[in-house]
Fold this sequence. Notes:
Shape: globular
Strand order of the largest sheet: 10-11-12-13-9-3-14
Number of strands: 20
CATH class of the domain at 12-54 and 149-245: Alpha Beta
Order of helices and strands: HEEHEEHEEEHEEHEEEEHEHHEEEEEE
CATH superfamily of the domain at 12-54 and 149-245: Probable tRNA modification gtpase trme, domain 1
Helix content: 10-25%
Distance between the termini: 59 Å
Amino acid sequence: MSQTPLQRTPxxxxxQALGARFVSFAGWEMPLYYQGVVAEHRAVxxxxxxxxxxxxxxxxxxxxxxxxxxSRLVPSDLSAVRVGSARYTVLLNPLGGIVDDVxxxxxxxxxxxxxxxxxxxxxxxxxDREWLQQQGIPGLELQDRxxxxxxxxxxxxxxxxxxxxxxxxxxxxxxxxxxxxFIPRAPQRESSAExxxxxxxxxxxxxxxFELLLSPSDGxxxxxxxxxxxxxxxxxxxxxxxxLEAGFCLYGQDIDESTTPLEADLAWLVNNPAEYxxxxxxxxxxxxxxxxxxxxxxxxDRAIPRSGYAIYAPNSSQPIGRVTSGTHSPxxxxxxxxxxxxxxxxxxxxxxxxxxxxxxRLAEVVKKPFYRRQAPA
Length: 377
């Protein structure tokens, strides 16, 4: 029985030329690293790195009063999202489980139609598209740009400095979670190229940075220009260590349809005063008590936690939870992880034991994020 071939982004030949080591991820053949995970991780923390994240789902949405209809699907108040701004939130099922974690971007209206964009996870792209189309949103028009467009992330304290020379318009004018249209300074652009590119001050690394939606020709041009300018190409390996240091969840690992935002330490997303899918389930869970919580922990012993490892309370005979994500932190120099534990043990300062290769290793619940970038002076 033949396997479905892996998809490749328009930048795949450029990654090959840079000597990338590839990995299969969510049906795509993606760079895992170029020079090494730690070197790329440090480049993003200290200067800037560029990621090809074209595998992620990219939807453009139009419809009358679309924002109010989308608000029925999420626990966050999308009515507060202004044109030119964005909102991170989660799509919920009727039981309050997380269908996906996503970012909504609001654009200027086109006539009578509101205009939004939505970036979703690669592994859930088809599921999310079908799910949105099944929600009975009146007049919804959905364009899937996942395959037709490139998505780049330029991340790090020097992201604005290295990216600005290649775009007309001021990146400094964009605050966190704001977005706009910019013109590439490409000397020769294909006649079919779009007039502008979408740029948002968002990211998944815990650093300042930008995410850009471009045509394939503009994407290839910008990637080559930034790499030639000394920006470090980065793969999925350091993307995972960076997001974990920043305390960000990975869908399918830390959150899924069996977890609610209240359990996943995402209660700050639940602020929608209107009715929405899953609201009753969340209210019931809050009233009855949340049995487990996703916590961040650091290893006190020299050991590295990994997904699936059992978590124990000191001297307990039965596990009280499981590690969902874990790694050695290149920035902090010790093991860190996320995991669900019985709520009794979720308080900061609680001592835990992680079973690693048959031995219990001491850990402590800590406040997230593990790493927080320093504000510019």
